[in-house]
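WARN retry 2 of 3 for item q-0093 after timeout on previous attempt; input resubmitted unchanged.
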Amino acid sequence: MPAIQPDLQQMLGNVQPIVVANRAPLALEAADVFRGTPERLVRGAGGLVTALSSLAASTHALWVAVARDDSDRALAARGDPADLVTEDGLTYRVSFVQPEPQAYDLYYSSISNPLLWFIQHYLWDLAREPIVDTATRYAWREGYLRVNQMVADRVIAQARASSRPALVFVEDYQLYCVPGMVRAVLGDVRIQHFVHIPWPTPQYWTILPTPIRDGILQGLLGADVVGFQTRRDVRNFLFTCEENLGLVVDLRGRTVLYEGRTVRVRNYPISIDVDGLLAQARSDEVLAEEALLLSWRPEKLILRVDRTDLSKNIVRGFLAYERMLENHHELHGTVQFWAYLQPSRQDIDDYRAYLGSVLSIAARINRQFSRGGWTPIRVEVDDVWARALAGYRQFDVLLVNPIYDGMNLVAKEGVVCNQRDGVLVLSENAGSHEELGDFALSVNPFDVDETAEALYLGLMMDPVQKVARAERIRETVRAADITRWIALQLQDLREVIG
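OK item q-0093 returned
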C-alpha cells in the first residue's frame, strides 16, 4: 500500500479526516485449525476499501463503519474507537456503529441491495419488478434511515471530540443520507460524498416513491462536494437535481444551489496502486499459481475476472464467445475462455439464479463444442486473489463487458499486470471506458455479435498494435493512480475550505 505523498499530507492541513463507509477497512479472519493459522486481522475486500486504506492508514484518519456480523462486533468490543493492527503492520482507528440485526437487514438487504443497486445499474425488469409497497417504506424508515442516522450520530460525536476541525469522507450508496444528517447538526463541517457506482437518469429514479428519492438527493446535497466516477454520472446527477427536485444547477460550473449553499459535483475516476499491485503480481504465491495456469494454458486465452453480479453481464460474454466459435472454426482446439468468478450476494434469490444461469450456459456451450480433450470454457467459482493475478499476467484477451459499472478496476488491474501485451475488450458502459476506451476494443455490452467480433480481433491483432494499445493503457493508469484520485478530492475540498 502506498504512503500518502507529502503534498497530500500538506493538503489535508490541520484537520481530522473521518472516513465513513458501510465496511470497515479490515476483517477478522478466524483461526484455521487444519491449516494451523491463527486468528488474524487482514485488509478488507473490495475496491472501496482498497482505495481508501492508504488515506486512512497513513493519516491516522478515523474510520466509521457499520458492524455487519459477529466478526465486526468482536472488533467493536476492543474499543471505540479501536486501534486495530493488520498482520502486515498497518494501524487503523475504527469506530463501529452496531445496529440491531433486523435494522441492518432492512438497511442492507431490502434497500441498499438490491433496490438501490438495481436502480443504479439499470437492472430492474420494470414490467415485473420492483414492487414498491408498505414493506419498502418500512425498510426505508426503520432500516436505511435508522442506520444512516446512527452513522451520522457517530460522526457528529467524533467530530465534536476532536481538537481539530473534521473533514468527512462519506462513501457510496449505503449512506446517502449521512451528509444531510451531519450538516443539520454541524453546519460548518466539511463533507465530501463519493458515489462508487453509476448514477442513472432522472427518469429511472422515479421508480422510487417521491419521499425516498427526494430524501436521497437531499441527503447527498448536505455535502460540499459530491463525487462520481465519470462525467456522465456528474451530468445525470445534475439533471436529477434539476428535474426531480426543481433545483437551480449550473451545468458548466457543475454546481447545485441548495439551501443557500453551492454544492460542487465532480468526477474523480478511481484507480489502483500500480506499484503495490505489480509487487503482489510478482510474489511467490502468484508465481506458483501462474505455474499451475501454464500447465493447462491453451495457445490463446480469453480471461474474465468478475463477481457473479447481474451487472457484470457474464452470460452475454459467453454467448459472444459461442458466436465467435460458430464463425471461426479454425480457433477450435486452440482457444479457451477462462471465467474466474467470485461468488456475490448468494443470499439474494436473483443472484443465486444468475449464477445458475452462468453455469448452465457454460455447460451447454461446452457440450456443443468440446472435442478431443478440448473444453471451450473453463469456469471457476472461487476467490483466490493470487489466482486472479496469475490470470492477469497470462491473458491474450481480457473481456470486461458490464451492463453498467461505476469504474471496473479489472480493466486497469489486468492490463497493468499482463506480461503478453494482451488486448482489452471493454464495454462502453464501464466507467473505465472514459479513460481507456481509445486504447481498448469498445463494445456495446448488449450486442453479442459486436462482442464476438471484438474477441476475435483481439486474439488476431497484430503484435505491434497490441504493444501500442497495452502501453497506452499502462501509461494512462500510472499517470492517474490511486494517489491522484485522493489528491483531486482533497484539492477540491481545500478550495471549499478556502
